[in-house]
Each structure stands twice: as structure tokens, then as C-alpha cells.
Specification:
Layout: H1 2-21, H2 24-29, E1 31-37, E2 40-41, H3 43-54, E3 60-72, E4 75-87, E5 96-110, E6 113-128
């Protein structure tokens, strides 16, 4: 179980780092074919939704902590605190948007390893201007 826990924590970090790097290919590869996240279904739709929110944003940082991990055979559930800071770009330069909340993630073991099957981010605190989140122009 500790190997599964370690693998899942590394994948959470990989997803956050790929989001901050806008590495859409890595994000898509970390999802199951039927994944549901951010109000979208399937890797292509999820990545498109993320691009629409982050494509026109300056640097961001997804900080993760207080991980709770439950593994049951080939499924797993993680709850993780997230603190996400977004810096405005273009017409939003000088602004920021920051949110703090809980990632509620469900994982499935596949032949390629653990993949994210469902994600929900519950925002508990919202600071700054949400208009910072915007697609590339």
C-alpha cells in the first residue's frame, strides 16, 4: 500500500506541475479515457476546459498538502488541500486570483499505472479577481 500511496502522491505532484507548465499532453496522459473533471468528460474535453481557464494566465503555482489516501485494490481516493495562485497577464497584468480548497480525486489502476478518473475541486476561499482566469487570445 505504501508504494501505491507514494505513486499517487507523485501523480498529484505531476498533475500540478504539468498544470503550471501548461503541459497539456502530460495532463491528458494522466487521465482515464472516461475521466470527469472541471465539468468536462474525457481527456480532450478536460484539457480544453483547462486551456480555456489558464491559457491567458501568467504564471501559476499549485501547492498541495495534507494528503489523505485510501487504496482499495485497483481504485483509490485522495483528498488533498490545494492553494492555487494565478498571476494576471495581458489586460489582467497586475492582478491575481488565488483559491484555496480541497481536491477530491478518484483514481483507477490501468495497465499504464494509476490514472485520474474523477476530480472535483471545492473552493473554500477565493481571493483577487477571478477574471484573471481566461483563455489565450
Amino acid at each position: 500500500m505504501s508504494d501505491d500511496r507514494t505513486a499517487l502522491l507523485e501523480l498529484l505532484a505531476d498533475f500540478a506541475a504539468a498544470t503550471d507548465a501548461r503541459d497539456w499532453g502530460t495532463i491528458g496522459a494522466l487521465l482515464t479515457d472516461d475521466a470527469v473533471a472541471y465539468g468536462a468528460r474525457g481527456p480532450a474535453a478536460i484539457v480544453a476546459r483547462m486551456q480555456a481557464a489558464l491559457g491567458g494566465v501568467g504564471p501559476s503555482q499549485h501547492l498541495l498538502g495534507n494528503h489523505r489516501v485510501t487504496v482499495d485494490g485497483d481504485t483509490a481516493h485522495t483528498r488533498t488541500y490545494g492553494r492555487v495562485h494565478h498571476v494576471g497577464a495581458g489586460p489582467m497584468a497586475g492582478s491575481f486570483y488565488e483559491c484555496l480548497g480541497d481536491y477530491d480525486d478518484h483514481w483507477r489502476r490501468t495497465p499504464s499505472g494509476w490514472r485520474l478518473a474523477r476530480r472535483h475541486f471545492e473552493i473554500r476561499v477565493s481571493l483577487g479577481d477571478v477574471a484573471v482566469l481566461r483563455p489565450a487570445t
